[in-house]
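User: Structure please.
Assistant: Input sequence and predicted structure:
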Amino acid sequence: MAHGEYAARVGRSTALILVCTAAACLPGCQPASRGGSVGPATSAELSANDWPFVPATIRVHPLSRIANDAAGRQRVELRIECRDAEGDSVRTIGLATIRLGDANALEEALDLNNLRVNQETWDRVTRTYRQTLDVPEGFVCKPGARLPVKLELRLAPDRILSATGDIACP
């Protein structure tokens, strides 16, 4: 086979492959959706309760801890994990209320509706929200002591998730 014949065959083969690839990518050539909806849902059509990845549970993540900061003060490093109905860790929006301790409890709000706050507190590695807080006044962190934590996440006016847990002292 001469070099010219070979080049012509390769050129025709390449063109055929490109045409077949382009045809396969056309929307009219894709199989019809078998889903229950008539068309794709837009974000305006979904409410917080309809979204499949909305948190179904929250918890005080086991990586939460009490540690000393650079100045030597004890600080609570709280990690909040949100999980969807399938048990996967997810991001969220909403207003979280954090309560540390029983007597002289420290209460703080974490506004995850604020995009800046949401981005700053989200830890991509652990897939948790990380918030650093003061140790409540009167709480003495000694070996064996545990700091009680109560969480509440308001996703919508009619949808609130809650969790309790504790953080062990080092």
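The helical segments are 3-25, 115-121.
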